[in-house]
Amino acid sequence: MCAARIGDDVLAEKDIEFVKKFPAWQAAGTRLDAGVLVEKKSPKEARALLDELPGKSAEDWILYARALEMEADMPGTPLDERQKMQAQAAEIRKKYSFTLEYDFGE
């Protein structure tokens, strides 16, 4: 995530590919891919990836909420959709409020 945040896409991809080599870490690889997509301002694609997970962890849901919030804040998002996304993100955050969210940005 940190590599993606600073714009080092090559390192981020290398790290994710390493994680995906281990069968037990496939969900972690998908989660990392989704996180990179959020960093690249592609929340719709990130949510689609997270939707592919057979069962979402609390951390997955928090990342999903982050993607919803980002998409809601994008200029092209219609107002009615924006409000629905913000409400859904708030509900997710309320449900998983016990989960820490690590944000190393700004």
In short:
This protein has 106 residues and is mainly alpha-helical. The protein has one domain. It contains six helices and no strands.
Structural class: mainly alpha
Q: What is the N-to-C succession of helices and strands? A: HHHHHH
What oligomeric state best describes the polypeptide chains here?
Answer: single chain
Low-pLDDT stretches: none
Shape: globular
Instruction: Indicate the proportion of strand residues.
Output: under 5%
Terminal CA distance reads: 14 Å
Description of the structure:
The structure is a single chain. With 106 residues, the protein is mainly alpha-helical. The protein has one domain (2-95). The protein is built from six helices and no strands. It has helices at residues 2-5, 9-20, 26-39, 43-51, 58-72, 79-95. α4 (43-51) packs antiparallel against α5 (58-72). The model has no long low-confidence stretch (mean pLDDT 86).
Task: Please give the structural blueprint.
Elements: H1 2-5, H2 9-20, H3 26-39, H4 43-51, H5 58-72, H6 79-95
Task: Please supply descriptive tags for the structure shown above.
single chain; 106 residues; mainly alpha; 6 helices; 0% strand
